[in-house]
Amino acid sequence: MARKIWAYAKDVHEKFIYNKQLEKLEIFYIWDVLKLKQQHPEAYSGLKFYSTEFDEINRQELIPTEYGFFRYQSDEVDKNRQESIYHSTAMLVLQEMSEINFTIDNDNYNFRFLKFLVEPCLKFQHFDKNEEKYYPDLIGYFGEDCELYDKWNGCLAIEVVFTNPCYQKKKIHLRKIIFPLSK
Fold it and tell me: In the beta sheet, which residues pair with residue 28?
């Protein structure tokens, strides 16, 4: 099972906690959560923690453990959706970067990202009315100052790869809708 070290949280009103300054959901690191539990148990008791998928419907409740990671509330989590700690850490680091250099088709590009979507759900409707869903690790939105802005509609799909490469069907569908794919 993946060792998750950060999570989103809902407050006592069942609303996800939003960081207005950063304009994104607040990320709760396990060490801060364990410290909160010890030092301010009343504040801690009003929180429920959730996985960090972009689409709220896919987020699953997490339980902080004394061992320094969150675990899924249910042990019956689909093993295909679990991430390695390296994968999760790389995604978090990329989200925190405002500027990233990529080599795409042997050309170097500097992207200045305005925001990232984490594991957004992309739906593909086929002619036969069947629908397929894909969850790229990140979609980064970049400014008009990038030479690829018009060609790629100001966004770049990013797949973080360590041991499990992005499968071919997913790459083909992402490219069909003019999403450049970087890994």
Answer: 7
**Residue 121 is encoded by which pair of tokens?**
């759900």
Q: Nearest 10 degrees: CA dihedral of 121, 126, 129, 131?
A: -20
| Chain mean position to CA 153 | 20
In a domain, 175, yes or no: yes
Is residue 58 a contact partner of residue 72, using CB atoms and an 8 Å limit?
A: no
How large is the average pLDDT for residues 147-163?
A: 85
Q: Are residues 48 and 101 in the same domain?
A: no
51 plus 136 within the same structural domain: no
pLDDT in tens, 8-53: 999 999 999 999 988 889 999 999 999 999 999 999 999 999 988 8
Same-domain pairing of 72 and 91 = no
Distance CA 9, CA 127 (A): 39
User: What is the pTM (predicted TM-score) of this model?
Assistant: 0.53
d(Cα 126, Cα 22) in Å, to the nearest integer? 37
